[in-house]
């Protein structure tokens, strides 16, 4: 596989270097440092399941709670509520652990533990905020354990203050707030030194501590009594003698829950583990099960062997009931200092991961520094200083609630990440990439509602234009692309493009690499459109493919939009423009693989005067006929190189009849190439009116005014009943339009002269009306998708030019856009060129014009 394949953008390594959220890594730098990083990572990652996950997690969860607060929980809450507290707490942490297991086994893990998992699952905007919260949770947790250790030391070696009870022990240490702060600072400094040396020293220290702890847990409890056990079953909340605050279920739960917050100790070491995806789930689950059993068994033993008064008044009571009391003291000291180190090293790893991901710019740049062995000493230093600040709180129970809140929020975020990914059903979820859960959720919701959008339940009342605009070269049709964006009315808008060629013989799909350019243009033009590219041996086959396959369910194009087929030389609308997202100009060129030519990375140059088109006249008309056969409306857009939307959006108004008014939209609903039909209320006419109203309802066209031109013969005019129907139709459709009657007797005369008749003065009016009524009946009987009238050869150039002049004469003030009736192509394919010639003459020099053939009922009316 070539080194330039896009797979290299996935990730440089699975180790300590994370890509920045928005920038693609530089490949030259990646190659230079790739080997060194991998060698360094293999040397740094030394910890396995036991020492890397199980031991740190056990010590963090047991810590100060099992020694100093298990009696507090049972004495205040009683056995029943204590068990409820443990069940609630372990339900929370078990769900979190399962989420951690699911996330950690779905991709490579790096330093940062839970932060790394969340950021790669929910994206940097969620991960960054949760990462900061988890960092402070570990900082406060480290301070909590240091304060717990100080409390244990002072209860044994502290000189009692005046008014306090004297307990047995070697009382040599001065007591008081500032002395306790000094002792905490000294203990924290020891933790700092161990963490500063590195994770391997921390792992060795925890191994010694766990040995001591196991010896302590195997000690025998004495004095188990049924009466004592029954007396400790129910709750009895009193004042906490360390803080003077009245206890409650919530406050006791907050203190107790700190004994469960160490479940992330193993995942925090993810950057130092040999195989994080293997070690974290197995080690964490083993530690959680062990602590759950230990806490419940210990609570029952304490409740049966200690009076409630002892549990409430002496948090250091375990020394009195152990076989060898000093062993309890050693266990307290070792486990609490281990938990403090675990939280300190966890906080430093999270801070280091945040700085590597560059989420806060240069604010965290200094903490990115590491030692030669890869230990983030700067992060350890900053974490140590913040823990020192928290030590000023002074009492363990004071900050216990804060720590609990922090950890509960972090656990909720981890569970949310796993739940969201499960709901989104993202099959390629890999946390080692920057992922945006919003995209996965959007995909899930869109798929669900597309399935609910049943085409069998479509109703004309809820019709909206769903447009497929075929684009040969975007450089020459940006005006049309922005105009169609206004015309879509919150419907589907797809930009289609056909590249001539066959996949046979090609090494890969040549279109995949072009989507970025098209999507960049969509962003640049600020339009809401999808892009669909296809490869075909002809433009006709390519358009057929797109009409067949574009969209899903009820969201499929119902209208095909084509640029007009004429001899105009296209202009480059993108020349000199810059792509704001990258700062690259659309005129930028890069060397091509073929013959060293310079080509644009976006789109090819526009067609020159002597360049051949990709399709001929007959094939172009075939596109129209194919679309009508498939039940699609067809719109031909002409002269939109003259369309200036910026003038329209700026609110520029014109002077008309001594008042200021907005731009005009002219609608000619009659089939001007078939004057004998004279039908104003057929499907196509209504489609023209509907599209014009849709355009007027958009924000950019809100000041536009509709002008409806009705062609009549001065001698006959419209029948009163037909004119009444027309007025009623406009009222029912709630169309506000300026209706203008246009006399076209002389134009119609040219048509009938071609057919051998002379319309002069009062020529056989009854015979003429009878013939025209017959033609109207024929029109009403036509099947929408089957009949193609063969009237192309009956129109003379003289007649069509007269119609074109008629339209131009009635175009003052000049409209922003015109809507004309597009006749269907003839059934005889030999007349395709004649048909195109006539449509060309009809719409020549009219400015921006839409020629529309509507086959879809779009309004509810009885007319």
Automatic annotation (TrEMBL):
Recorded GO MF terms: potassium:chloride symporter activity
TM region positions: 47-71, 83-109, 130-157, 177-198, 244-265, 285-303, 323-346, 376-393, 399-421
Positions of region (Disordered): 1-41
Membrane topology per record: Multi-pass membrane protein
Compositional bias annotation for Basic residues: 30-40
Origin: domain of life: Eukaryota
Swiss-Prot/TrEMBL GO biological process terms: cell volume homeostasis; chloride ion homeostasis; potassium ion homeostasis
Ranges for domain Amino acid permease/ SLC12A: 52-432
Keywords associated with the record: Membrane, Transmembrane, Transmembrane helix, Transport
Native organism: Dissostichus eleginoides
InterPro entries (alphabetical): AA-permease/SLC12A_dom (IPR004841), SLC12_C (IPR018491), SLC12A_fam (IPR004842)
Protein name: Solute carrier family 12 member 9
GO cellular component: membrane
Similarity comment: family membership: Belongs to the SLC12A transporter family.
Subcellular location: Membrane
Gene3D superfamilies: Amino acid/polyamine transporter I
